[in-house]
Amino acid sequence: VQLTGTLALAVFTSTLGSLQYGYSLGVINAPQKVDYFTLTKLPNCLCNKTETPNKLRQADRTHSIVNEEDPGHHPSVIMYWSLSVSIFSIGGMVSSFLVGFVGDLKGRVKGMLMVNVLAVAAGLLMGLCKMWKPHIMVISGRAVMGFYCGLTSGLVPMYIGEIAPKAYRGALGALHQLAVVIGILISQVIGLDFVLGNDEMWPLLLGLSGAPAILQSLLLPLCPESPRYLYILLGKEQEARHSLCRLKGPHDPTIDLEEMRREKEEASKEARVSIFSLICSSVYRKQLVVALMMHLSQQFSGINAIFYYSTAIFSRAGVSHPVYATIGVGVINTIFTLVSVALVDRAGRRTLTLVGLGGMCCCAVAMTVGLKLQNEYSWMSYVSMSAIFLFVSFFEIGPGPIPWFIVAELFSQGPRPAAIALAGCCNWTSNFIIGMTFQYIQAWLDSYVFILFAVLLLGFVLFIYFRVPETKGKTFEEIAAIFHKGRRIPTDNGELQELKSSTDA
């Protein structure tokens, strides 16, 4: 199967939403001491432009750049800052439940087009924040942007998973994570003080988070709708045939349509599965547990802790500008996500995830040793620094990109939107929990915090080794058969009939 220009355009256009998601994650962590809120409405003691509650930036998922200098501690500043960071995750948690509804309402392409209104509105709120009360405008913009990103982090993998040829499904699916890390890297670079991370330009820095949505809105009408959506959900065979020919070039789509026909027959038994019925169902329990554990392994791997420690460790190792070393971590992020794109359809999803989590476990142990001994042995700082780069590399080889697209592979058309919504909510909720609790865990365990992550990583490795099948090169039908093997699926007045009568959540 050849990769056509139309398929490349469709994947590029959809991943602009992922780029926006990554930029929004990283942009709030601009490293310099910039007062993001014009504090004229607050007490006079707050109007010192050199004070910004940098430590509260730990609450953001990326934790990518933390300024260790003395921050401002006024309760109002702390409240506004922490709210602007955490409300992003709250917006994502709420909207992730609506992914299936939006994707099925008008289709995957029109769904992405509709939600771009949110991204543009969020960008305008933040970019024009100095026109009113900046703290209220920024917090509102972050909330709307979080709501948008919760939707796009589900819609993009869903669309790519449905249009990608079986042979390239993993590589194209991993492009979602690649776009996310590129977005984070871009936000780190243009957030430097001599670019946009300064007192004059910071509204533009935040406002640019809505820019990719404008380009995506121009390109989406050129992208074909998902053939699986057209055929299985709408029953439009001719439109599905036309969409297949656009995506794959001149070929006989009979084989693809036959696979979709069989999947549609199964979907007619399943009907459209709601989120609640999916949670209660024993038919899909194995797939659902695997999907949720994959997302938990991504968030509870300790990647956020590594980002938090990075600047301090680079400083102790004698790096004169640790902020640039941290940007170097972002570059490593991007390079090894590219490695994952190249390997995922050769080595397989299961193998790369096991290698990634196992490598991270070893790095977490090395990090603990390095942190404990770096005051006694100066060279231990370099052990810690090397462990950071290796930890991030292993994360992006498997645990970073794979959970986002494997959910679409594990479920057939009926339960897929509900499953993606649940997995997305699990990811965003875990993200929020880590952001709110990590500083307390770190204060409790100090450098031993990485032993906690090593234990968690070992548990995830064992789970994936024993419970997660390889999905590389398999049809959706074959993947479903792996989970149903050895169990009798009810067909008459049993559970499938209940699922059939359920409605969408």
From TrEMBL:
GO cellular-component term (any): brush border
Database matches in InterPro entries: GLUT (IPR045263), MFS_dom (IPR020846), MFS_sugar_transport-like (IPR005828), MFS_trans_sf (IPR036259), Sugar/inositol_transpt (IPR003663), Sugar_transporter_CS (IPR005829)
Keyword flag Transferase: no
Membrane topology value: Multi-pass membrane protein
UniProt-listed Pfam families: Sugar_tr (PF00083)
Listed SUPFAM superfamilies: MFS general substrate transporter
Compartments (UniProt record): Membrane
GO BP, one annotated term: D-glucose import
Highest taxon, organism lineage: Eukaryota
Keyword annotations from UniProtKB, A to Z: Membrane, Signal, Transmembrane, Transmembrane helix, Transport
Domain Major facilitator superfamily (MFS) profile: 10-472
Gene Ontology terms, MF aspect: D-glucose transmembrane transporter activity
Range of residues in the leader sequence: 1-17
PROSITE patterns documented for this protein: MFS, SUGAR_TRANSPORT_1, SUGAR_TRANSPORT_2
CDD domains referenced in this protein's UniProt entry, alphabetically: MFS_GLUT_Class1 (cd17431)
Coiled-coil region: none
Transmembrane segments annotated in the record for this chain: 78-101, 113-133, 139-160, 172-196, 202-223, 288-311, 323-344, 351-371, 377-397, 418-441, 447-466
Family: Belongs to the major facilitator superfamily. Sugar transporter (TC 2.A.1.1) family.
Protein name: Solute carrier family 2 member 2
Source organism of the structure: Oreochromis niloticus
Taxon lineage: Eukaryota, Metazoa, Chordata, Craniata, Vertebrata
